[in-house]
């Protein structure tokens, strides 16, 4: 399982590097102007809808598939086909709703949009909404592949998606902006086609069958609906963020999106590969009643997530400006855009720890086939987030929106930890908290070093080179401190890396 997580992390890191290039190309041509503002809101609906449908498909499919796997592959193919057909109908209803009343949808999430930016957003959304089909099917069959212990192909798929978006973004910048929405929809269909060979290798056979009376389909719906509700709830606050930002300042929606994408890149590298790899195992433990083993995997991976995320938070805070400048600071993305985006990133950074812990504990509840608790907890944290949205944005502007999101994610994580402890007993949180304090202290020391070193390096050499050296030396210092404090063993990491290389 650890080797799978390592492979997924490497693949995800490489994919996110390409994602960096994608954002660099976009910022070069369009900066934080109305084109970016329109693109962000136009992509919000298909991305959010696909997010909660897709996550429910990927995560909800695995427990049912694992539990009923004894019925054989033929049953698995029939079950998956029925879910695919059900989702096709649901997605079609979403698409029709957006096509019939696009302006109402845009106003719902960006009430401050008027004139040219509103017109452009509607034009983009009418094209992009069709990507829902590809995104949803990809998520479903990613769950199918994962349930059959096939992880690599679906992890590689975003390479193709990012490559297509980059090519179409260049075409949009040099030829016509219409290539932006076209690139979005084409990229997701290419991503779906990328995993088709994996389905063929497993001899998957699609069936044109539709039945909501099937007990397994009913069980899936019972699991998936609360997951969708939890994700809808968590995204309501994001929609309100964009809505408020659309009134605050021109380019505000863009600044939030650019900075949030940095967070997304970090989570894609440091969180999701781990939680994706451990979830099938957690699901088996949950369905088989192996609670002590489930507790152990939760605590171990919570520590791993913290080891990776806490220094990332400190690094993003102290190096926010050089990071944003290095990634986006060229072409149409001027100094004003750098300042606005880097300031927002500082306040978005703390949400990393909340997102990591939340993802592990949500999956712990899902493995116990309890999807209602995450909805309730997410609703509570969303209320806190929304209240803080209005309060902090009136005081701090865009930074207040980012800070309220971070607070909401941390509240979500703490509540989930507390509720799960009440549900299944002690989770070894004292050991986790002890290690977390050491991790936080090491991260702060690393942050001080990074700030001082980067300030020196920026004046002595190329800023990009200085930033890279700062990250390398700071990371080395951080892991050295953890090794001395016996939180991790450098020797153990090297041995595992050598073993993994030999296995390859």
Describe the structure.
This protein is mainly alpha-helical and 504 residues long. It has one domain (2-427). The protein has 21 helices and no strands. The protein has helices spanning 2-30, 34-67, 73-100, 102-109, 115-128, 131-147, 152-174, 179-194, 196-201, 215-248, 252-270, 272-287, 291-318, 320-328, 335-348, 351-367, 372-396, 398-424, 429-460, 463-484, 490-503. Helix 15 runs parallel beside helix 18 (398-424). The two termini are 15 Å apart. The model is unreliable at 493-504 (pLDDT under 50).
Structural class: mainly alpha
Q: State the shape.
A: globular
Total strands: the figure is 0
The gyration radius over C-alpha positions equals: 22 Å
What are the low-pLDDT stretches, counting only 5+ consecutive residues below 50? 493-504
How many domains? The number is: 1
Q: Helix share of residues?
A: over 70%
Report, as a whole number of angstroms, the end-to-end distance: 15 Å
Compressed to H and E, one letter per element, the order equals HHHHHHHHHHHHHHHHHHHHH
The whole-number mean of residue pLDDT values reads: 82
Task: Kindly summarize this structure in a few lines.
The protein is 86% helix and 0% strand.
């Amino acid at each position: 399982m650890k080797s799978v997580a390592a492979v997924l992390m490497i693949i995800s890191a490489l994919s996110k590097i390409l994602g960096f290039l994608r954002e660099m190309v976009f910022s070069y041509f369009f900066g934080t102007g109305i084109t970016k503002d329109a693109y962000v809101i136009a992509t919000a609906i298909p991305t959010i809808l696909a997010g909660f449908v897709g996550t429910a498909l990927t995560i909800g499919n695995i427990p049912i598939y694992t539990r009923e796997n004894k019925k054989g592959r033929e049953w698995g193919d029939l079950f998956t086909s029925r879910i695919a057909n059900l989702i096709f109908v649901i997605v079609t209803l979403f698409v029709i709703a957006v096509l019939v009343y696009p302006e109402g949808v845009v106003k719902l999430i960006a009430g401050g949009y008027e004139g040219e930016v509103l017109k452009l957003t509607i034009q983009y959304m009418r094209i992009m909404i069709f990507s829902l089909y590809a995104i949803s099917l990809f998520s479903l069959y990613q769950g199918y592949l994962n349930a059959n212990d096939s992880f690599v192909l679906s992890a590689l798929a975003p390479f193709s998606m990012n490559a297509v978006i980059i090519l179409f973004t260049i075409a949009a910048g040099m030829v016509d902006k219409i290539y932006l929405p076209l690139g979005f929809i084409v990229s997701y269909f290419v991503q779906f086609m990328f995993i088709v060979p994996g389905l063929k290798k497993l001899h998957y056979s699609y069936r044109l069958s539709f039945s909501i009376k099937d007990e397994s389909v009913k069980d899936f719906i019972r699991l998936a609906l609360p997951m969708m509700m939890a994700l809808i709830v968590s995204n309501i606050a994001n929609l309100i963020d964009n809505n408020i930002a659309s009134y605050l300042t021109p380019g505000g929606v863009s600044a939030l999106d650019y900075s949030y994408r940095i967070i997304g890149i970090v989570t894609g590298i440091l969180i999701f590969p781990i939680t994706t790899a451990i979830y099938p195992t957690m699901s088996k433990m949950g369905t088989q009643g192996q609670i002590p083993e489930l507790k152990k995997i939760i605590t171990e991976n919570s520590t791993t997530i913290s080891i990776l995320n806490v220094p990332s938070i400190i690094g993003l805070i102290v190096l926010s400006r050089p990071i944003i400048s290095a990634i986006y600071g060229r072409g149409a993305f001027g100094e004003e855009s750098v300042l606005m985006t880097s300031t927002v990133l500082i306040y978005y950074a703390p949400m990393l720890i909340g997102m990591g812990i939340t993802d592990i504990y949500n999956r712990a509840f899902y493995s116990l086939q309890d999807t209602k608790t995450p909805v309730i907890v997410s609703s509570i944290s969303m209320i806190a987030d929304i209240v803080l949205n209005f309060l902090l944005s009136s005081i701090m502007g865009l930074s207040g929106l980012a800070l309220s999101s971070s607070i909401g994610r941390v509240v979500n994580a703490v509540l989930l930890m507390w509720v799960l402890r009440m549900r299944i007993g002690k989770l070894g949180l004292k050991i986790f908290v002890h290690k977390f304090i050491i991790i936080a202290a090491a991260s702060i020391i690393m942050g001080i070093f990074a700030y001082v070193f980067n300030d020196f390096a920026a004046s002595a050499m190329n800023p990009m080179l200085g930033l890279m050296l700062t990250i390398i030396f700071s990371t080395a210092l951080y892991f050295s401190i953890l090794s001395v404090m016996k939180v991790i063993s450098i020797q153990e990491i090297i041995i595992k890396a050598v073993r993994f290389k030999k296995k390859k």
